[in-house]
Write a structure and sequence with these properties.
Length: about 250
């Protein structure tokens, strides 16, 4: 689980609720029509902008980003160097007993054991990496779009509330609910965009970069193993992907 994401979301909502409670009741900030306009509107328009499968997939990716923590590239490099030592000592076929929870790495190892041509294997793995980037790009665009739609639907709700308020100027009892719709839809849209959608789109972008870095390290490592590169030389080559301060892997 990504603790930073969980802490950030909880803290942001807690601060908003605290500010509300310091000035009045929480019930004053709950308005069903405003909720329907903003959250229902964003959900509906998302189906217009994206295919149904993409909408549900993007929601699932959001949960994955919160619950699944990306493996540090240092661990990936260490694992690849260990595999290089096994291959150098016992041969490529000895990698058949190596099992990994990373499906991309496991697939690469399987191809390597099966004797795939290095150039062909590199081409296949890089193509898969490219497709991964495209999938991630769609998920990021979805949540960036939600960040745009939130304030937009809030503005629509504000205009609806203002029209209702102006039409009810002769009825003081109707002005309050109409004003609530006008103001709270803007608030809901801003909260949805700036606490959830846009920060998650940014974090998904970082996750995508981290995962693509790990996979590029795997590609370089597997091809190096297949070509018989010395494990120590392979480690030094793979460490180039890390910042200088993180290159001390030991051994």
């Amino acid at each position: 689980m990504d603790i930073a994401t969980v802490i950030g979301l909880i803290l942001a909502w807690a601060l908003v609720i605290w500010a509300i409670l310091m000035g009045g009741k929480l019930s004053l900030f709950v308005d069903v029509p405003s909720i329907v306009i903003v959250f229902g509107g964003v959900f509906a328009v998302s189906f217009v902008r994206h295919r149904m499968g993409e909408v549900f997939a993007s929601i699932g990716v959001l949960m994955k980003a919160i619950l699944v923590k990306q493996a540090p590239p240092e661990d990936v490099i260490t694992q690849l160097v260990d595999m290089a030592n096994i291959a150098r000592k016992d041969g490529i076929l000895a990698l058949e007993r190596v099992k990994s929870d990373d499906t991309f790495l496991q697939t690469a190892v399987n191809h390597c054991v099966d004797g795939a041509d290095p150039e062909f294997l590199q081409s296949v793995l890089e193509k898969e990496l490219e497709y991964l980037g495209e999938r991630h790009k769609r998920n990021i665009e979805f949540w960036s779009g939600v960040g745009e739609l939130g304030p937009a639907m809030g503005m629509i709700g504000t205009l609806i509330g203002l029209v209702q308020m102006l039409a009810s100027m002769d009825d003081p009892a109707a002005i309050g609910p109409a004003m609530a719709v006008a103001i709270l839809t803007t608030l809901y849209g801003a909260l949805l965009a700036n606490i959830v959608a846009l920060p998650m789109a940014y974090k998904l972008g970082n996750y995508s970069k981290d995962e693509q870095l790990n996979r590029q390290i795997i590609i370089d490592g597997i091809i190096g193993i297949q070509k018989g590169v010395n494990p120590r030389m392979l480690q030094e080559a793979l460490k180039a992907a890390l910042p200088p301060k993180r290159r001390d892997l030991g051994g």
